[in-house]
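pasting for ref
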Amino acid sequence: MVCVKAALNLRQIEAFRSVMLAGTVVGAARLMNVTQPGVSRSIGLFELRIGYKLFERHGRRLVPTAEAEALYREIEPLYGSLDRIAQVAQDIHFQRAGALRVATMPALAQWLVPRGIARFLSLRPKVTVFVQSLPSRQIAELVSTKQFDVGIVELPLSRPAIMIEPMEPVRSMAVIPAMHRLAGKKQISLKDLDGERMVLLSQHSFVRYQIDDAFSSLGVAPHVVLETPSSSIACALVAAGAGITLVSKWTAEPFAGPLVVVRPVKEALASRYAIIFPESGARLPLADAFASELREEIRLSEHP
């Protein structure tokens, strides 16, 4: 005996399901928005393909056979899955679902970016986010190759295959041990730091270049006792009593507390950041949405 696998047609399966739901060919035709003869023909072809009868005619109604009932129990969950796929497709279209990959520089990973992500997710409960903290140059490389959808980096930065959207400059803050003599001042001038023990960023960074240039122009000679490439580590060292540091407001904010005070710097020192995206191909809508929410979080933090 030779068994031939039935080549099923989705239209025939849909006709079968519609008759099971409606109970009549007329009702099935309305569900499918086709003619009654079209439904009857699809059912006939379906029965021919599978090799057994699906319905007994009782007047105008079609009564399903036991085989039809068994087949329907297998088919119906598949349509439920299709409905879920359709819903997911709509959710993705309206940015209610999907996945986003975010890379941020460490200096903004403690406060600003987590707040932006939380804001973004609060409006999109079905969206998932993967976030990683990396140096700016590495972020640019990974975004350019689309391993991340969006990145938050420090400027200046030059890298092909990325789109750079600069953010507003962020003022620098002095991070001071709470028991230090300068902790009581509402504003810190760089002149106040002459001879003070300082924890500064490594000399290869653009921010350090700005700080050194500002100190030099004022004739100030701070006592640099520690250097680190990480502004978050610099703040942690201040909390441990190692000295004073100068970092951006967004890095300093989460460290303010019993051990540390954060004071604005009088002189015009600022950090510059940007949101970056892959240059080639269509930009992920969720990446644009996240960037908008991050900018809104920045606006609210500046003007609560």
